[in-house]
Every structure is written in structure tokens, then in C-alpha cells.
Design a protein that fits this description.
It is built from 19 helices and 28 strands. By secondary structure, the protein is an alpha+beta fold. It folds into 3 domains: 145 residues, Creatinase/prolidase N-terminal domain (Creatine Amidinohydrolase, Chain A, domain 1, 3-Layer(aba) Sandwich), CATH 3.40.350.10; 140 residues, Creatinase/prolidase N-terminal domain (Creatine Amidinohydrolase, Chain A, domain 1); 278 residues, Creatine Amidinohydrolase, CATH 3.90.230. Helix 11 runs parallel beside helix 12, helix 14 packs across helix 15 and helix 14 packs across helix 19. Its EC number is 3.4.11.-.
């Protein structure tokens, strides 16, 4: 009945089975006269999703999370992961061969200074690390009297005999009916920023920036319509796009040639070298540009200028066409979500469904919209204890039956040509406990606090983050992830530079789209998260002395009323919830075609 086209449930290779690879890798390091090597979970552009050919960390260690790093020394080896992935890494990695260490606090460099010896030679691939990451490694080596060595070719690739070929996803044109702005106009704005930086040219090392600037999309990585590519934009004159020509049809090539010269990726290094030889100062994105690019520019006599890519901020502020598109995408998605939630409520209490059934059903309802291009990330469907694993991904081995008394946490999203969605709902299967209701209501109150926030222009995500946590803190609990991330327009579901988190230093601007997703996770018991996407809008306040902003909630899906302890809500919170549910019903009901789902929606959105 249901099936998944965009997701698989196969168990990745892991554990002891991979330990022979570690021995082969150490032999390769010895052959190169290296005493250690750093393997990040990264491609040349620091993408969140990387092509199979770039999954070196997973191939060597078995760890498949979206963030991590391994360090192999002659005697010791460690995998470094953040709080989201501690449980997952413990299950995937051979604990006899690898230590599992924190990725952030303390950072891997701390471990290096304790384990490196004087005279050691630690290798790294400068194409897979940013310059600031390379500098941190160099400082750690210096502290231990060791040397950091940039390698010409990656030793993992030397032993990975079945390494997949690089991807060749076809490039498509993202027309003005979706982008709302032609390339020439975008390039004018970018060149204005380049002139403000006082540099001769800007390297777009982030493929998302290239896709946005030149109104193209691709299919090189999972779940994000990304064409792997680079661009070089001079302060005036014609830019160059570096992309594998095999990905281009005649029409996409013609589209690119209207605003840029089109070169093969291999031409990037000689082009930069030529420019640098003339003493040019070239801006690089500190967050995504490879250390190899800085080294190349500097060695040819140019001046690499590292900073934040101005395109990331331009791209984050959506125009009126993109905003209209995302509203339409969310309304379409709401119908699929409602059909799914009604189905799960009918089918789950019998105990016959599994997590995989839920993932397949939700994707099927989305595909039935006729507009789904992909899921925006692999659906997280965790029931009972699996719900407590923040970035859980169900496999055939971990697949759990959904039982009465469970909480089912389902976090999913869709890629439509007019917008990207991301939504989490926590569903009570049968009767929830008093503790579940208490924790859910605290999460809901934090969610509502963000949704109702009024804040002056210039406010950062870090300033708002506490609002989402206050009611959890009052009970002595918290959650370990950020409250929200930026979201692209038929691009990455996790888009910088703005976010709602302790680390969110970028001011929120009107037109930005961010998630609002506080949660609570009780290890080995259950997980709770409520997530909607929010659009930053202006709002009028009588007597306001400066411009003031607010959020417009884009996501439209019922929040499980059975989990709400109504007595804990203030009048204002209850009014927000009832208004939200009335809006969900008003928008979604006319688009439903069966009476059973309409009836379910009426009950799920009834006034509390």
C-alpha cells in the first residue's frame, strides 16, 4: 500500500566488520611516513549531505551521522561526535578499535595535544577542512611538538577500492516564477557587496550559493537539489561557473551562458592562480571554502580574504515570490500531513504498525500531492525509546513496533519546487502518562513563546533561544540541540547564517524562514518535539520607537491535544493554540476529499 522512493532502511556497514579497514589505513599512513590522519565528515564544500564518493568517515568507521570527525594515530583512534549522535555512534562503531569522544566540548584538538608526541607527522586533506579548522589542528600539533602535513591525495581513497564515482546529477533551471529574481539582478547585488568588501573577486565555494545566484538546481546529493559547483565573481565584469559539463543540457548551458562563462571544475585552480599572480585580493567564505583554496591563492602571490560569504545572507532573506511559494508549499504539505495523522490515529492503536510503516505512509501521502521532488531529509520516526535519539533514522534492524502507551515522534520534510518544508509532531498512541503530558506541555509552551515573540529589528537567534527553554528549565530539564535553523527555498532544509540557538549571532531579518522546534528527550523512554517553520515579518505596535518584527507560522498541522495539560497554559497560550488550530482547519479542510479525514481534523483541531 505504502512505499518509500526517496529513503532506504538498510543497515549501514558498521562495527567489527570494518576493523580490517583501520589496519589497512594505518599501513597506508606508514607507507606515507605519517603517524596520524584526520578524517572529517565533509566534502570539498562542507555540505551537510555529501555524495557517496565523499562518505570517507562512514566507510572507515561505520558512523553515519551528518557531523563528525575521526583521528587515527599509530596506536589510538577516536571518533568525535556531538550530543545528537553519542548513542548512535556507540551502536555503529567498534568500541575496541575506536574511542568515542565529544566533538565540541572539549574539541578534538584537546584530544590531539594529549595523544600526539614530539616529532609526529599528522596528515590532513586541505580540500576537506576550512582554513580555520586547519589552523586549530596546526596549533594542537605545535603544542605537542608535532607537525601538520597537508597531503596531495587522500590516503582513505588509496585503500577504498570500491569508492563510488563522483555524482553527475542533471542540472535544471529554477525559473523566475519560483526564484522571483533574475541572475543579472542578483549579480548586481553581489558585486555591490564585493565592492564593499574592497576585494577584487569572490569565490562561491558553497554550491547552494552558486545554485541561488544562477537560478539552477541539481541532483548531486541526497534530499537537497544541489548541483556541486563553484563560481568566481569579479568585482565587475563577467563571472565564471565551474561545473562538470556532463551535468548540463543545451538549455541549462544556454541559461548559464547568459550571465557567466562556464568552465570545468579542473579550471578553478589555474584560474585562481592566474588571478593571484596579479596580486589580487580574493574573498573566500570562511565556513565552506577549503583550506586548499587559501593556500593556492597565497602561494601564487594573491591575498586570500576570509570572511562570511555575502551570498548566504542575501539568499536567507526570501523575496515576495519565494514567500508566496513557500506558503503554497506548506498548504499542500498540510493536506498530506493531515491525511497521515488521521491514518496513524486509526491504524496505530492496534499495535500492527512499525516505524518503517509510518515513514513509508507519510512519504506516500506527500507523493500523492503530485508535486513532491524529494524528502528534505530522511524522516525521523522514533517510537518509545527510539524517540529519545534526536537524529534517529530507522533501519530494518532498529525498526520498532508502535505500541499503545508509546509516544511516536515524527520529524519530516518535503522538497517542492516552490518551497521546502520541515515539521515535527509527537503523537500519543493510547493513553499518555502524567509525566509525558507535563513534559509535552512545557515543550509546547516554549514553542508558543517563540511563535508569539515580538522583537526589535537587529535581534539575534541567541537572544530568542531562552524563550523556548524557560518552562523546561523551571522543571530542571533541557534539550541539547538548537531551537531553530534557517530553511532555504527549494534548497537546503538547514540553511545559514541565521538560527535560533545559543550560537545564533546573525540578526533575524524580515523574509528569513526559521524552524521553531524545542523538545525533550528521556533516554530509553520517549522523545518529544514540536516543530513549525516561521517566517520573520514586520509588525505594527502603537508607540513603538524602532521597527519591530514577529513570526508568521507557515506550518499547518494539528498539535496532539491529548498530550496537553490545559491547566498549565496561560490564557494567551490557550488563545494562540485555539487560533492556530482554527487556521489549520480553515485552510486544510476544503482540500480534503474524504469525510473520515475531515471528521478526524474537526476533532483534532476542536477548541480546548
Amino acid at each position: 500500500m505504502f512505499e518509500a522512493h526517496f529513503q532506504t532502511f538498510e543497515e549501514p556497514e558498521s562495527g567489527v566488520a570494518l576493523t580490517a579497514r583501520l589496519s589497512a589505513f594505518r599501513a597506508e599512513l606508514a607507507r606515507r611516513k605519517l603517524t596520524g590522519f584526520v578524517i572529517p565528515r565533509a566534502d570539498q564544500q562542507q555540505n551537510e549531505y555529501v555524495a557517496p564518493s565523499e562518505e570517507r568517515l562512514a566507510w572507515l568507521t561505520g558512523f553515519t551521522g551528518s557531523a563528525g570527525l575521526a583521528i587515527v594515530l599509530t596506536k589510538e583512534a577516536a571518533v568525535f561526535v556531538d550530543g545528537r549522535y553519542t548513542l548512535q555512534a556507540g551502536k555503529q562503531v567498534d568500541r575496541k578499535a575506536w574511542q568515542i569522544e565529544p566533538l565540541v566540548d572539549p574539541p578534538p584538538e584537546h584530544w590531539l595535544t594529549r595523544h600526539l608526541s614530539a616529532g609526529d607527522r599528522l596528515g590532513f586533506d586541505p580540500w576537506l577542512h576550512t582554513s580555520s579548522a586547519a589552523e586549530r589542528l596546526a596549533a594542537a600539533c605545535a603544542k605537542a611538538g608535532a607537525e601538520l602535513v597537508a597531503v596531495e591525495s587522500n590516503p582513505v581513497d588509496a585503500i577504498w577500492s570500491e569508492r563510488p564515482a563522483p555524482p553527475l546529477g542533471p542540472v535544471t533551471i529554477h525559473g523566475a516564477q519560483y526564484s522571483g529574481e533574475i541572475e543579472a539582478e542578483k549579480l548586481k547585488r553581489i558585486q555591490l557587496e564585493i565592492n564593499k568588501l574592497g576585494v577584487d573577486a569572490l569565490v562561491l565555494s558553497d554550491s547552494h550559493a552558486v545554485a541561488w545566484t544562477f537560478n539552477i538546481r541539481g541532483a548531486d546529493v541526497s534530499h537537497t537539489p544541489l548541483p556541486l559547483s563553484y563560481a568566481l565573481v569579479p568585482k565587475d565584469g563577467r563571472p565564471k561557473v565551474f561545473i562538470d559539463h556532463r551535468k548540463l543540457s543545451n538549455s541549462t548551458r544556454d541559461h548559464l551562458l547568459q550571465s557567466a562563462d562556464v568552465e570545468e571544475p579542473a579550471a578553478l585552480s589555474p584560474t585562481l592562480t592566474e588571478l593571484a599572480k596579479r596580486g589580487a585580493s580574493i574573498a573566500l567564505d570562511g565556513a565552506t571554502s577549503a583550506d586548499a583554496l587559501s593556500r593556492l591563492i597565497a602561494s601564487a602571490g594573491g591575498k586570500p580574504v576570509r570572511g562570511s560569504d555575502p551570498v548566504s545572507l542575501l539568499k536567507a532573506v526570501k523575496n515576495s515570490t519565494e514567500i508566496a511559494g513557500t506558503r503554497t508549499a506548506h498548504q499542500r504539505d498540510a493536506v498530506a500531513l493531515t491525511r497521515f495523522l488521521a491514518w496513524i490515529d486509526r491504524a496505530a492503536p492496534s499495535g500492527g504498525l512499525t516505524e518503517i510503516d509510518a515513514v513509508e505512509a507519510l512519504e506516500t501521502f506527500r507523493r500523492e500531492t503530485g508535486a513532491l521532488k524529494d524528502v528534505s531529509f530522511p524522516t525521523i520516526a522514533g517510537t518509545g525509546p527510539n524517540g529519545a535519539i534526536v537524529h534517529y533514522r530507522v533501519t530494518r534492524k532498529s525498526n520498532r513496533r508502535i505500541e499503545p502507551g508509546d509516544l511516536l515522534l515524527i520529524d519530516s520534510g518535503a522538497q517542492y519546487q516552490d518551497g521546502t518544508t520541515d515539521v515535527t509532531r509527537t503523537i500519543a498512541i493510547g493513553t499518555p502518562t502524567a509525566e509525558m503530558r507535563d513534559r509535552f506541555t512545557r515543550v509546547l509552551r516554549g514553542h508558543i513563546a517563540i511563535a508569539r515573540a515580538i522583537f526589535p529589528d537587529g535581534t539575534t537567534g541567541a537572544q530568542l533561544d531562552t524563550l523556548a527553554r524557560q518552562y523546561l528549565w523551571a522543571a530542571g530539564v533541557d534539550f541539547e540541540h538548537g531551537t531553530g535553523h534557517g530553511v532555504g527555498s527549494y534548497l537546503s532544509v538547514h540553511e545559514g547564517p541565521a538560527r535560533i540557538s545559543k550560537l545564533g549571532t546573525t540578526p533575524l531579518k524580515r523574509g528569513m524562514i526559521l524552524s521553531n522546534e524545542p523538545g525533550y528527550y528521556k533516554t530509553d523512554a520517549y522523545g518529544i518535539r514540536i516543530e513549525n517553520l516561521e517566517l520573520v515579518i514586520g509588525t505594527d505596535i502603537a508607540g513603538a520607537e524602532k521597527p519591530v518584527n514577529a513570526f508568521e507560522t507557515l506550518t499547518l498541522a494539528p498539535i496532539d491535544r491529548r498530550l496537553i495539560e490545559v491547566g498549565m497554559l496561560s490564557e494567551g497560550e490557550l488563545a494562540w493554540l485555539n487560533d492556530y488550530h482554527a487556521r489549520v482547519n480553515r485552510t486544510v479542510r476544503p482540500q480534503l476529499d474524504d469525510d473520515a479525514t475531515k471528521l478526524w481534523l474537526d476533532e483534532a483541531t476542536a477548541k480546548l
